[in-house]
Amino acid sequence: MSLMLDTLLSRQSVKFVQAPGPDAAQLDQIMRAAMRAPDHGAVRPWRFSLVQGPDVAAIVDVAEQAAQASGQALPEAKVATARKWLGSVPLLILVACRPDPNGRIRPEESRLSVACAVMNILNAAYALGFHGYWSTGLGTYLDNMGEAFGFDALDETFMGYLAIGTPVNAPQQPERPDWHSLVSQWSASQGRHSVTNQEAN
């Protein structure tokens, strides 16, 4: 099996990470991988903000204040969980999407492109010996949350928090579904039908 395939087939999300995180050279590789995401119309919709060191813990305070300002205060239990999660994270990447300002490309396609960029970040980080976790909690979908973190309130949509670092505990491989149960095959003569293990073999 190639090293690339081994990376793709063994990567998993790990929520609780700690230092060390990527150094400058590794971070450069990770972010260059993000720029390889599919991008219909060359919109370049990816917007990221890097948060490191003690600034990571401050993210919870900003999110909590933004939620209160919106009239939708975050539950105390959620805030406490976020503080526990981010307490040791060495690198947090804030994720946002800036769709095509000319309206040529549908906004949904730009958001998909950002999601692909995040996947590339996670794969690249894992290939370099780190793990990551993409969260859409902590008020991600509140209208004013992106603006609280410096993103353009009119043109950019906040899409969550991406933690990168070294696992606090040894990751346990989760059970993955058999792809045959989720994939079908279409043919012009027969229409759509499910692929069985026998057919795939």
Give a written overview of the molecule.
The protein has 201 residues and is of the alpha+beta class. The chain has one domain (3-173): NADH Oxidase, CATH 3.40.109. It has 7 helices and 7 strands; from the N terminus they run H-E-H-E-H-H-E-H-E-H-E-E-E-H. The protein has helices spanning 3-10, 24-34, 55-69, 76-86, 107-127, 145-148, 197-200, and strands at 17-18, 46-52, 91-97, 131-135, 157-167, 184-187, 191-194. Strands 1, 2, 3, 4 and 5 form a 5-stranded antiparallel sheet that branches. A two-stranded antiparallel ribbon has the order 6-7.
Which tags fit this structure?
201 residues, alpha+beta, NADH Oxidase, two-stranded antiparallel ribbon, 7 strands, globular
What's the number of helices?
Answer: 7
Strand segment tally? 7
CATH topology: NADH Oxidase
CATH homologous superfamily (4th level) name = NADH Oxidase
Largest sheet: 5 strands, antiparallel
Low-confidence stretches: none
Number of domains: 1
- Radius of gyration, in Å, reads 19 Å
Strand percentage: 15-25%
The N- and C-terminal alpha carbons lie at a distance of 19 Å
What string gives the helices and strands in order? HEHEHHEHEHEEEH
> What share of residues is helical?
25-40%
Rough shape? globular
User: Which class in CATH terms?
Assistant: Alpha Beta
CATH architecture designation: 3-Layer(aba) Sandwich
Average residue pLDDT: 93
Structural class: alpha+beta
